[in-house]
Structure formats: C-alpha cells, structure tokens
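Hi R.,

As promised, here are both runs. First protein below:
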Amino acid sequence: MRIRSLGVIDDAVVELSPGFTAVTGETGAGKTMVVTSLGLLLGGRADPALVRIGAKAAVVEGRITVPEGTAALVRAQEAGAELDDGALLISRTVSAEGRSRAHLGGRSVPVGMLTELADELVAVHGQTDQQGLLKLSRQRAALDRYAGDAVAVPLTKYQAAYRRLRAVSAELDTIVTRARERAQEADLLRFGLDEIAAVEPRAGEDVELSAEAERLGHAEALASAASAAHTALAGNPEDPEGVDATTLVGGANRALDAVRAHDPALSALADRIGEIGILLSDVAGELAGYADDLDADPLRLAAVEERRAALTQLTRKYGAADEGTAGVLAWAEQGSARLLELDGDDDRVDELTAERDGLRSELGVLAQALTDSRTEAASRFAEAVTQELASLAMPHARVSFDIRRTDDPDGVELDGRTVAYGPSGVDEVELLLAPHPGAPPRPIAKGASGGELSRVMLAVEVVFAGTDPVPTYLFDEVDAGVGGKAAVEIGRRLAKLAKSAQVVVVTHLPQVAAFADRQLLVEKTNDGTVTRSGVTVLEGEDRVRELSRMLAGQEDSETARAHAEELLATARADA
C-alpha cells in the first residue's frame, strides 16, 4: 500500500510479507492509520477528519495479488478492471470536503464494489470484534458461520417459511382488526351498486339521450325548416306557378339532351345535370319523410330529460364528468370485484388461519433441524477453540456452547413446548468458558479475565481463519491484555497460521512481533513544522533495537537486547 496525507502519515509505503507481517511502533505513531488505510481500500467509511491538516485529499493505493478464477477476480473484471502484471490495483481518495472516489483496476467504481470484494479478500479481526462477540446474537451468527452449509441450507428454508408466516399473520391481523371498517366499506359498495342497478345505465346512453333531447327540444323549428327545404326542391302543389329546383334542373337537362350528340363534352355535362336531378329528388323525398316522422311529443321530451337527470346523478357520484356512463359502469365493475373480496373475508380468514397453523408446524420441523445442526457444529467449534486455547497458554480451559430456548405461548411447538421463534430460529446461543478444572462454565463476558478474554477471542478468530475462504487476515491489537508466556504462544500460533495464509498483526507485544516474517516500524518525527510518519522494514540490528524498545522501553539496554535476540532465536527455531 501507499498512503498519502492520511492522519499523521504524510507519505509512506507499506509492503506486506506473504506470510506473517507485524506492524509495531510507539503509541500515537500511526499504526492505526495503517489499519485505517486497509479499511479504506476495503470500502470502509470515508471520514474527512482523516485527511491530514493542510492537505486537499488523502489517497490510499493498494496492489493485491488475486488468484486466477476466484470470484473476487471475476467480479472485478466484470466491472471493467484490468490486471497490472497479474495484480489488481485499488485506490481510494477522500477529499477534505468529504467526497470519496474509488478506482479498481484503472476503472472508476462505486465504493460498494470494494466492499463486495473485501469479503472475499481480507478478514479483519479487531478489538471491536471482541466486544461484538460478547453479544448473544453475534455468538449465534459466529456458530452458524462456522457450521457452513450444515446450518446455511436449513436456515435458508427456515427463513423463507418465516417470512411467509409473517406475511400471512400480518394479513390475517389486518382482516380481523379492520373487520368494522371493511363491513362499512361493503355496505357503501352495496348501496352504490344497488343505486346503479336501479337505473340500469347503458354504455353511450347519455350521448344518445343528449342528441334526442336536442332534437325534441327544437322539433317545430326542424319541421318548419324541412318543409321549406322540401318546397324549394320539389315545389308546392298548391302553387302551380311557383319555381322549384327540381323543375329548373329538369328544364336544363332537356335543353342539353337535344344537342348532346354533337359534342362529347356537352354530353358529359348533361349526364352530370341528370345526376343532380336524381339527387334532388331523393333529398326532397327524405325531407318529406323527415318532416312526417319528426316526433314533437312533449311527454317523450320530459321522459328523456328525466332519464338524463338520473344518469347525471350517477355520474356525479360514481364516475367522472368526461367519462359519463362509461365511468359509472367501470366503477360498478370494480365495486363488484371488491365486494366479492370483502364478502369472502370469512373464507379468507379460514384459509389464512389454516396456512398459518401449517407454517408454524413447518417452522417447528425446520427449527429442530437447525438446532440439531447447530448442536453438532457447536461441539466441533468448542473443541477447536479449546485446542487453540491450549496453544495459547490456557491448557486447562474448556469452551462450550449453551443452546437453549425461551417459552412463548404464541410460538411454535417443539418437544411438547411452545417456544419463541425469530428470523434465525428458536435457539439462543451463548459461548461458555471454564478457565480451569472444577470451575463451572460461565458466559465468557463473566467467566474470563481481560487477558483470558483476549485469548479466547483470538482462539475464536483463529478457528474462523481456518474456515474462512479469504487469503488474508488482519488482527488489530487482539493481543491486548496478554503478556509473558501467553504472548509467546500467541506469536507462535499466528506464525503457524501464516504458513497457509497471509497474516497482518498490529501489536505492542515483542513476543508476537518476534515471530513475524517481516516487521514494519511505524514511527513519527518532528521537523519543527509538520509531523510526518514513515513506515520502515526492520532487519538485523534495527529489528533487535525495536524489540528491545518494546521489551524495556530502552533500545540500548543490554538485558533487553539479549532478551530480544533470544525471542528472535526462539521464533527462528520454531519456523
């Protein structure tokens, strides 16, 4: 990694060993910034307060070797990332204003992409994880994670049934608790549907009645106009001297017929005049029929207006003004469907009740399968942690799990009991510790001293590391509160773990640092204006001096130097 303008670090390069790397330095030197830098590369939260005072932005760049064919590499390449000489380049920039940018393999990507990759690349274990593992929910999650598919498969089935049960119960509660409101809604729908049924509107009827009302309201004017038009076209029998259009057109036609044979053009005009005469006769006949058939009955007009008023009232209540009877009929169709739904509540209640009871029975079976899988995994997990504690200078300590259930009258039936259930099953899981023979197992938060708790948590994390599919593990001062022989055993155990994975440890313990394949010193100096921090790879005499400082606070103490050299010799012998 290259770290620039982050906290007390001005510009530093951190190159980690493929095996065991120990990061050491005095308190406040910036060791935490190394961990923070890795966290930023893994998609951690960008805090503008991390930006070095006076700098515009903090930048962390990382070069990570990712094995071919791994899910992380495939996902990165799908995002457009390219490899640089077989390595994946990651960078994260945090501005002083709080803006954050991420790049992966030369491509700009959302920060969330880094978070996705982090789960498959690095497992981080720190003091905050220790506190988190004191919570029962985290202990159950830890056990489930250790168990793998043996718990994951039945848990997936259980959670699907649990979600369905929650949905069914919620719907059932809604129907029951809203019974009054639903009954009132049904009454209103019935009233509206009865009112519409009494009128029996037809689609488009309002448009037809509007046209008929317009015609009936002007019947006399329409009849008079039709008669006048008929007289103009066909003449008035009572006025033989009158001139009408049919007579005039007939005279024009006769005049042309006499000479049409002499000119085709004139013959064509004569034909057209003949067509006009026929059309005039037809129109005149239809006008005569229209006038005879026109209904001027005021009773019919009153009936039409009454019907229109009834339809208008329905439209105001159940439709839109621009939709007319079509809107009323649409409301009636929707209302009928809704009424069927409301009237079917009793049947629905029976169906939901039966489904709820069936799901509770199914949950009971799945919960028992979960309990069985957890019980089997708990035995293996506890044995593995107990063995790790023997390697951490707690040879007589025993770790176990208490898997129990809580009674709940509204729960699920299991073994003749009605027990509480939740999204993860019916089990409460608690990690217990018996620190020495004869001591009763107690919850780790109550049964372990500070040093013992650190070793228990480290043992748990090492067991996790053995089951995690990630290639790199970061331990951030999880050895706090430990010293002496136990510290040596912790260093030895981490060195053993580093034979199969990359291990990075931030530590204050020389007993742990001595076992590292590479020791990085984070130190800061003061040039009078700006405090800078650098990261140095320690070798030979420099490493002895740093271990002496960590042992006695004195780099040049002969006793401390001898002890430091002895620690290094012990670590080399174990290797």
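And here is the second one, sequence first, then its structure tokens:
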Amino acid sequence: MTAVRNWKESLRDRMPESLAREIDIFETQIELRKAGKIGDKMFAETRLRKGVYGQRYDNGRRHDGEKTQALEFPCGDLTKGPETVWDAPGMMRIKIPLGKVTPDQLDLMCELAEEYSDQILHVTTRQDIQLHFIHIDDTPDLMRRLASVGITTHEACGNSVRNVTACQYAGVCNDQTFDVTPYAHAAAMFLLGHDDVQDFGRKLKPAFSGCKDNPCGLTTFHDIGCIAQVREVDGKPKRGFEFYVGGGLGAVPHPAKLLEEFTPEEELLPMMQAVCRVFARLGEKENRSRARLKFLVNKLGIEEFTRLVKEERTKLRPDPRWTAYLDDLASLDEKPLKPGSELVVDAGERFKAWFKTNVRPQAQPGYSCAIVTLPLGDFTPDQGRTMSDLAREFTNCSLRFTVDQNMLFRWVSNADLPELFARLDAAGLGASGAETISDITSCPGTDTCKLGISSSRGLAGELRRHLSVAPELPPAAQALHIKCSGCFNSCGQHHVADIGFLGVSRNVSGRRVPHFQLVVGGQWTENGKTYGLAIGAIPSKHVPQAVDRLTKAYAEGRREGENYRQYVARVGKKAVRQLIDDLTQVPSYEANPSFYSDWGDPREYTIGDMGVGECAGEIVPFVEMGLAASERELFEAQVILDEEGNATKAAERAYQAMLHAAKALTRERNANLGDDPDEIVREFKLHLCDTRLFHDPYVGDKFANFLFSAHGNGTTTSPNNATAHQRIEEAQLFVEAAHQCYIRNASPAS
C-alpha cells in the first residue's frame, strides 16, 4: 500500500479537494467490498460511476488489427462476491469531453497504459479512451494521476450523463454555423456530478453539432442532441440550438425528436437540466430494457414530454452557471503555433495518398486538419507520445479524438504537412484512407465485452486488410462507410452505416457458427439521419466476399450522384439480398472447419456436440424450419415497407414472423399447438417464458415482450412508416433471441 499512499499524498494538491475526497471514498469502498461489507448491487453502481467496468477475459485474447495476441491474466470476476479473485482484469473508461485532449494528458494516459494495462489505448465512438485489463486495486491510483492533469473517470459509465461529444472539427469547420466547443464543454462541466442526474434508470448521452448536414456530431441518435442555429432577434444575430431528445441506437434504434426549434444559448443548460429532471422522475426504473430516455419520450409523446420539460424549467432554482461561461466564449479558442502557408512540397506518392484522404482544409486560410488513422481505434503508448510531441511542435497542442475512433491534428500550417506525415509514418501512424471504406468502426465485440456474440474487431481488422490489398475501388465505393457491432446493442453504430454488420450466431448441425447480420439502408450524413435494417445473416468467414459483391454491384449499378442508401431504396433490399444469398450457406465442419471459428481466434467458436434428448430426432428439424420461416416473413416485411410503402401490412408481417418463431419453439412442449395467435402466445408464455427458457442472461425477457406488445395492440393500431420500421426491428431481435433460445436448450454443450 506504500505506492497508494505516495500517490495520494503527492497528487492531492494537484486536484480539487472534492475530487480527491471522492477517490479516497472509492478506495475505501473497494476494501469494504472485498471484506463483504458492501453488496454486489451497490458496489457495481459505485464502480461503474467511477468508470470501472467488468470485462470479458475468459478468452484471454485481444485482436490488435494485425494479429490476435494471447494475454496472461489470472481469472476472477470483479462483479461477483467477496470470494472473488481480486486480480481479475477489468476496463477503465476515461472521459474526454468533446474528444479534446492536451499533449500532457495524452502522455499521462500513455504512462498508465504501460504501467497498468496491456499497453493499448483504445478510442471509443464517443471520444473516450479505454484501458483494458486493469486490476481494480490499481484504479484509485489511476484516478488520482488522471485528476492531476484535469481528467476524470467520474460518471464515465453507469446510470449517469456520459461523455459529452461534439464535432471534432468544431471551430475550424467550413460548414459550421458557429463553434459549439464552449457550449459542449460548459454542458459537460455543468452536468458532471449534478444532483439532478443521480437518479436515472439508465444512461443519458448528449452530443453537439455545428451544422445539420454532416455526420460529425451524430445528434440524431443521442438522448440529447443540440445543433447550432442562428436567428435574427431584434435585428441582431442570436445564437441558439435546435434541441432534440430521445434518440438512440441500441437494439431498436429511435431517431431523436425535436423538442424546440430554437433554444437560445442562455437557455441551453437549464433546458438540459429540466430534461434530466423529467427523465429522473418519470423514466423507467425497474425494467432496464425500457429505461432509456427514448422510451419515455415515445411513451409520453413528444408534445407531452415537451410540455413537462418546459413546466420543469419554470421550477428550477436559478443557477449562475447557466450563463457564466457566455461572458468568455473565446476562452477555449485555439491559436495556431505558426503562420498559415501554402503546400509547396511534393513529398512522394505515399504522402499524396495520405493527403487525399486524411487532410481537410480549415476555414482559416493556410491551415489544415490532419487525421491520424487508428485501425480499430487502437494506438500504443509510444505512438501516443509521438502524437503528443508532434502536437507541441506543429499545432500549439491542438488534438481531438474523433467519433470515427481516430485522432485529429488541428491548426497544421500547410507547409508542415509533409514533415508531419513523415514523422507519423515513421511511427506506424501514416496509414491513408481516413473516412473511407477501409476506415472501419468497430465495438470491442468478443475481445473484451461480456455481451459480444461475434468478433466485430476481428472482422473489422480482416476487412481492413482485405480492402487494402483488393483492386482499387471506384471513388463511389471508396466513400462508403462500414461499421461492425458484436451484438444487437449497436455500439459499433451499424444502423447508420452504408454497410453494417451485427454479430449473431447460428446452430449448424449441432455446432455454433459465428455470423453477422447484414444491415443496409443506413445514412451516415445529416448527423446519422436514417437507420438501416438487417436483411440476412452471413457466416463470418463469408463477410469479406459479401463486401466485394456489394461494393461491385453499387459501383456498377448506381446512378449519377446516387449514394448507397438511395441505391438500396431504388433497387430494393430483395435485389441486394440476392447478391449474397448463396453466401448464407455454411459448409459442413468436415468440409471446412474454419467456418466454425471466429476471425482472429483459431479456437472453435463452440464445442458443438449436441446432447441426446427427446427432441433430437423430430423437433430439431421442425424448429429450424420454423425459425427459417420466421426469417423469411421478416425479410418480406422489409420488402413490403420499402417497395409498397404499406406500413400496416409490413407491421403485420413482422408480427407474423414473431409468431412463427414462437410456435417453432413451443411446439416441442405442446405437440397439439395450433395456428391461433392467442394460443401460440399463451403457450409460448407458459412453456418458454414462465419456465425462463427464453430468458436471456443479459437482457432478460426484453425480447419476449416485443411479441406480447405486438399481440396485445399491434393489430388494433394504424402504424406509420416509423412504427412499422420499429416493429420490424423488434421482430428481428425476437427472432434472433429465438435462435439463441434454441441453441441454449437444444445443445447444452454449446
């Protein structure tokens, strides 16, 4: 404990006393938990609010984009009781508001990665940094050292206001209405630890964007989204925001709804506070699967929710922090280190390729932003120190992590770009292709996430390699975005990609096979405006071939100026599905065992030996046929919605898909089961839900409730396109849950 005392003593005067006290308390809580004096539930929320997550480590592997490395860590689980082996590794999430980081802060995080983790720093899609394989006894030390350079992990996880994100180009963008940096920063500081954000049922994620058309802020799928607006008031320009609420991806994505067309700048923070208070008071607390703000907004309706928020606003006690920052909006302005200049040096073909994709002119003449492509969002401590040194030398310390999991240098004088590139390239950071098809976003997947089903990082790494050696794609295909999620929670943002992949698994002759649902029709522009839908599951090892076909068909079949979403809408999802239909087939284990392991992990994805039971001879074929029928119904629902625009018919077909899946699972328990929907739902509840056979270890009965809801009122209401789209999403999740229920109960060894 000597080191702990030394850090505590040496760093206390470098941080606010209140923050030092919070870390001291957390350190005490760790000791109490180890002694069994704090319960599991209380300690879980305590450590999550400090940014400390349990992580998956049973596989002992981490895919680094080039290979999979074995990791030597002892077993144990910090989420369990006092008998836990407390050397179990976890993950620490570090909040980086707006992704804005100083070189000194970056250097410190690099030190921590070397001393406490697996020497990898990971950039998330919310501009955070994550360190994996952290031991919980070390976390107070990390927190103190981070606090000494102005960084906190407080409320990085848990039922709290998460990191406030913002466009990485804010302040230097050619398209912005105004610089949102000071507003987003003020929101982050105001909401951090605020009394009114301590009683949520789930997390709340805010985001800011300086314009409406570009994807940098992604405000449409956040709980609170603010887009910069300027209006004329009394003959003078007035700053404010389009204020959105209730967006979110997750299992069933919801587009954010407009709360106010124009929220004046002085009302920004009190309106955010009022939203938080309404969410804390009326949001779901018991059923976590319905506890996000999007469900409350949908339940109440945007008009009623808006009324409640505005009523709450009138009840707030005045707070000087609401407007104090407006007196000095320029306090966070960045200044260049060198005068602006022209690019005058021809630095070779590698520089030209990098310049084409990784350099973006700033609004300020003579300066550019330079993107450092970080495959899988990862970089090493040595690479981090290189970036901090270069920021000091070339940019006056201006760095931001991006929502694409990259690093952005700002205020680079154009004449310095060749030297900056050469120095980055020497450190292994000179890859081109930023914001192109090979710059693939991915969540942690099965590497470290307990919810991961398929290896999204492994797939992203393989696709990146595959695309880098493939023949050069036409410009239209190069501009596509690919995003990979390891499960239905959409942490990789697959819903808004041109081509998205969602990790699932399938049972093939008694063995589990990693698959990915192909998601098409999403829209990355306009802050992530439109969400795609899954059109079929592809074995993981066939995904690169599927990408080849999809990009080739688009490049050859698109009309002038037609983006991928428009192309898919024109040709139809049925035609897109036909391109990859044959790739949905899985060869037998004997013919090609590689299909039965995931990317980056040579071990079998599952043991796969089916137990001998009553259903082995007759029921298994019926179940598989029924589940296949449910997937066909689901795909037809999408086609009906897309091609016919018949929301009622599409919603009904999605409901029928759920009934097919429910009947397939239930018929084993009731051989006399008929086709009456009331009987199917009743028997499904009796035999699958009440017995907890359908109960998912991570989401409980959430997906079963989609069927019950559709059966109870889905046919008595008149759906519109949005609600039909949501019903299809829910049906997709129900059918996938049915597959997993079948796997769990028909194949105990898997």
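A quick note on the second one: Confidence is low (pLDDT under 50) at residues 58-63, 65-87, 607-621. Let me know what you think.

Best,
J.
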